[in-house]
Design goal:
Length: about 725
């Protein structure tokens, strides 16, 4: 039996449809996750080998450094700001919640802008100057409304940090130093958390400035520091991994033709990313990470003021010291995690999960400590664990997705991080009202421990998702080599498709192919997954894994409406008619995608009414009043109007009289004869096998048969479950 993939894949693909292990191993080596390495090469030697410097890392880190100035300064002086504006700490916290909401929204348009325009480095610089001016402007606010406006503007400008910094670093450096550069970046940015409180302490305690003077001074410094990043360049996506992946799995003869994929839209990419199991679980990590940043620090400042009666300068010193410990931890963590990533990325995920759990435990212990200095140490250890969470999450999420989708996964991470910050404010504020500031800090155990366990569980999924990405690139290379050798891909190829309704998996590694102009039958028992497979092909359902290609173009995650324009039309069984519209209105609805060419639509409608005179008689009748046969006629007219490349028909003959079925089948033959490939899902084996030469048979979500239709008649083990009377007799009678 020939599998679907073998019809166009070179000899490197095995008979089971799986990629040869040696090519997969070469691909993993290009990604830097081949396993078995003793230790990562020294950072300096790796940079020298690739003729790189640490300037992009430090420059972007400095942008992150000054990005936190406004928020951290407000964290320290929030009691004074509230008093000056005549509002309580709850009102300032609510204003911060709106800031976090703006931060939640900001990464998405920033990633969309990067997808459309590129120039990620320029976007980072422009937004940095913007938030520097916003920091300076904070010193001039005179009302809560003005403060809210400033905070929202700051949240929106932060979108570039969340959506673009991590992808830029991932594309600037090879995988062998990715974790360390991410750690150095986070360390430099984290120094901002140290500098901001210390600057507030310096300006307030030494120079005796008010909180307004603090923001003016920090805004000027932020503007000056932002200009350091003026030399950062955008290397383009995939310079050190995607390109090397293609080279690692390319065929030795060098023959290849660039594979063309139908470009995913922005929200199609986001939806596709959220189907990756590892991404789903790591986003929980970003959610809790958001809670452990600004909201926790806001309440930590109030905790230090209320519980330990510290001044602004004292609070700045304690928080700054905690972040200092986090910076030291980041430099240690970078080297350790780099080795882990090279040997097994799952180790990095497990460490991140452990760090989240330890973080909330240390914070809770610090909140209940009766002694000052042990409290400072415990809070510092908590901040250390917060610090190493960021680079670990970023390194893994940036390494398991296509390089072109890195800004999108970073935007998703920023979205979850900001939403976590918002939820953190709501959680801590609510608990503080009932149990005080100390109780609110302890309450972080509630989301923190489950989140850490969820992140740890993602360690079992990382390797599988890396292989998924590798296999996708290998499939592209195989297809490119096949086309370069003069081959033409099939009309439709579904490979390794898995699909689930919630926790219930319905399709299991399904392979399915339809050649140009071919008509195939898709048979099987009730509940076998036939209709679900059609949904995956037409875009109504998205697979959890696997690929769907139309003439070689990857359409796996395209929206259903875009697939119609590409030439895929589905006629669902019993659901192909709008009941509240007349026949003519249904036909015009089918022709909507033809655009403004009214003459073409009118001609297509005339052809439909000519093919089915009964519809001509009932053209003003509502679709709901038509008989079953008439509704199927009307549904089949969709194919006459759209003239698709691929027509999917689900249960055309179900419950219809033989004479009506005959008319419908005649039209199906005519549509196929005009060049449209047809997939016919049928309960009636007799009808299906009288039309086609090639048949597939599904059972319990798996493809059990793929071959000539007449061979299926000899498979009593399959057909026994489908029809109650002798299919062979029926087939012979049909040939007489």
């Amino acid at each position: 039996m020939t599998t679907a993939l073998e019809r166009f894949s070179p000899e490197e693909i095995t008979s089971g449809g799986r990629v040869a292990d040696d090519r997969r191993q070469r691909a993993r080596h290009a990604l830097g996750v081949a396993g078995g390495q003793d230790s990562a090469a020294p950072l300096r030697s790796e940079l020298r080998r690739h003729r790189l410097t640490m300037y992009p890392t430090v420059a972007l880190g400095l942008l992150g450094f000054v990005d936190v100035f406004q928020g951290d300064a407000l964290t320290v002086v929030s009691p004074e700001v509230g008093a000056a504006l005549g509002v309580g700490v709850g009102a300032v916290g609510a204003a911060r919640a709106l800031q976090f909401l703006a931060q939640a929204v900001a990464p998405l348009p920033m990633a969309a802008l990067a997808q459309a325009r590129g120039k990620r480095a320029l976007l980072c610089l422009v937004t940095a100057i913007a938030w520097s001016l916003i920091t300076l402007s904070t010193g001039f606010v005179t009302s809560l409304v003005a403060l809210i406006f400033i905070l929202i503007a700051d949240g929106l400008s932060t979108g570039s940090v969340l959506a673009l910094h991590a992808p830029l670093l991932a594309d600037t450096y090879p995988p062998s130093v990715r974790v360390r550069t991410q750690s150095v970046y986070v360390a430099v940015a984290t120094v901002g958390h140290i500098a901001a409180p210390l600057l507030v302490a310096l300006l307030s305690g030494v120079f005796h400035l008010t909180w307004r003077g603090d923001f003016l001074g920090m805004g000027l410094l932020s503007t000056a520091v932002s200009l350091v990043a003026i030399g950062v360049q955008d290397p383009g996506p995939g310079r050190f991994d995607t390109e090397l992946l293609h080279q690692a799995v390319a065929h030795e003869d060098g023959q290849r033709e660039e594979a063309h994929n139908a470009g995913l839209g922005f929200f199609e990419i986001l939806r596709r990313l959220m189907l990756i199991p590892t991404i789903q679980r790591l986003m929980v990590g970003f959610l809790v990470f958001g809670m452990l940043l600004i909201p926790f620090l806001t309440f930590l400042s109030s905790f230090l003021a209320d519980r330990w009666h510290l001044t602004v300068a004292g609070r700045g010193l304690v928080i700054g010291a905690g972040y200092g410990l986090a910076v030291v931890g980041l430099f240690i963590y970078g080297a350790v995690a780099e080795n882990d990533f090279a040997k097994d990325p799952a180790r990095v995920v497990r460490r991140v999960g452990n760090a989240v759990i330890l973080c909330v435990v240390f914070i809770a212990l610090g909140g209940t400590s009766p002694f000052f200095y042990p409290m400072v140490v415990l809070m510092g250890l908590g901040l250390l664990c917060v610090g190493i969470t960021g680079p670990g999450l970023n390194s893994v999420t940036q390494s398991i997705v296509d390089s072109r989708q890195r800004p999108h996964v970073a935007a998703l991470a920023g979205l979850f991080l900001a939403v976590g910050a918002l939820l953190g404010v709501l959680l801590l504020s609510g608990v503080a009202q009932e149990y005080g500031i100390t109780g609110s800090i302890i309450s972080l155990l509630i989301p923190g421990i489950p989140a850490g366990l969820i992140i740890r569980s993602a360690s079992k999924l990382v390797d599988r998702d890396i292989e998924r990405m590798v296999d996708s690139i290998i499939e592209e290379e195989d297809l490119a080599a096949f086309k370069a050798g003069g081959g033409r891909p099939p009309m439709l190829t579904a490979k390794g498709v898995n699909f689930s309704y919630g926790q219930l998996q319905v399709l299991f590694d399904v392979d399915f192919t339809v050649d140009e102009g071919e008509m195939v039958a898709l048979l099987g028992t009730n509940g076998a997954g036939k209709s679900t497979l059609l949904k995956v092909i037409s875009g109504i359902g998205l697979p959890s894994s696997g690929t769907v290609r139309l003439l070689g173009d990857d359409i796996t995650y395209l929206d259903a409406e875009r697939r119609v324009k590409l030439g895929i039309t589905q006629i669902p069984g019993g659901r192909s008619v709008f009941g509240r519209l007349t026949v003519i209105e249904n036909l015009r609805g089918f022709g909507y995608t033809l655009g403004a060419d009214r003459r073409r639509v009118d001609d297509a409608i005339d052809a439909c009414l000519s093919a089915f005179p009964r519809l001509e008689e009932r053209k003003t009748s509502l679709g709901a009043t038509l008989s079953g046969g008439e509704q199927q006629m009307l549904g089949l007219c969709k194919a006459l109007i759209l003239q698709p490349k691929l027509l999917l028909i689900d249960e055309l003959s179900l419950g219809l009289a033989p004479v009506i079925v005959g008319q419908l089948l005649d039209l199906v033959r005519r549509i196929n004869a005009e060049g449209t490939a047809v997939v016919l899902v049928e309960q009636s084996v007799n009808i299906a096998l009288s039309l086609v030469n090639h048949a597939y048979f599904m059972e319990k979500g798996q493809m059990r048969f793929d071959g000539p239709a007449h061979d299926l008649l000899g498979r009593d083990d399959l057909l026994r479950a489908v029809f109650l009377e002798g299919a062979t007799k029926g087939q012979k009678a049909g040939k007489r």
